[in-house]
Amino acid sequence: MKLIYVIVRNVDSTRVTEGLNVKGFYVTKLASTGGFLREGNTTLLVGTEEEKVDEVIELVKKECGPRQQIISNPVGSAEFYSTQVMVNVGGAIIFVTDVDRFERI
Ligand code: 2BA
Fold this sequence. Notes:
Layout: E1 2-9, H1 10-22, E2 28-33, E3 40-48, H2 53-64, E4 67-72, E5 84-89, E6 92-98
Antiparallel strand pairs: 1-3, 1-6, 2-3, 4-5
The protein binds ligand 2BA.
InterPro entries: CdAMP_rec (IPR010375), N-reg_PII-like_a/b (IPR011322), N-reg_PII/ATP_PRibTrfase_C (IPR015867)
Pfam families: CdAMP_rec (PF06153)
């Protein structure tokens, strides 16, 4: 048995959680805060069999892997008001740990 910690941005957390639930994975969602930026993020705990760890990681990648998004430039002078810029969004931090014992009582 493994316990997977998945740290994602809050905006991605619902999509990732639903994607995992639909495939039958159990998820515990914790509100967390990054120590560096001190901004809210979400930590998901997923307990599963060792052979399913790769499937969980693939699902997380599919739902919130790093990607680029075009946004209207939120700063700048009026002449650049309508400029569109490409920004990097998404991504996740994943830790996989061993579980000595698991019981559902
Ligand atoms: P990421 O590396 O994508 O990390 C996103 C969040 O994942 C982190 O939020 C933290 O909550 C968690 N995390 C990442 N690596 C971790 C680890 N080894 N152990 C425990 N938790 C971990 P923040 O701490 O607020 O960091 C936000 C972003 O700031 C990071 O994005 C990274 O790009 C940068 N960063 C974080 N720590 C840094 C440092 N010591 N020096 C330079 N840049 C740092």
